[in-house]
Design a protein that fits this description.
33% helix, alpha/beta, 5 strands, single chain, five-stranded mixed beta sheet, 3 helices
Length: 142
Amino acid sequence: MAFGGFNNDKQGAPMADINVTPMVDVMLVLLVIFIITAPLFTHAIKLDLPTAQSAPAPEKPETISLSINGEGRIFWNNDPVEQKDLDTKLAEAAKKQPQPELQLRADKATRYEIIAQVMSAAQTNGMTKMGFVTDSKEAPKK
């Protein structure tokens, strides 16, 4: 026996063997638990999902580029336009469905008064979607 016997004549030596039986028992129990529970993780729930159809994505509205150079000249999609014609074009664009987006580009040297007049004309004629376009480049370091 590994624990000794009933013979008291021998002196007891320290036990040098490692008892792996409890470790093997624990590993077998864990293996059995894993074998039993593994199929539960792959079990799918049968659902009868509803069907739905969505409306097609709305088409992206056109974009109008309104540029103002340093001298105050106005350009509608790169075509020069006068102030009196600008009001007519803005009113026509405001009536479109979906309403186009107005992208305002202005030179650094443009007077704010001209930009304010163009913004006012756009709002007066019914344009609701307006944005400013800026240059994303870093400013040159001096």
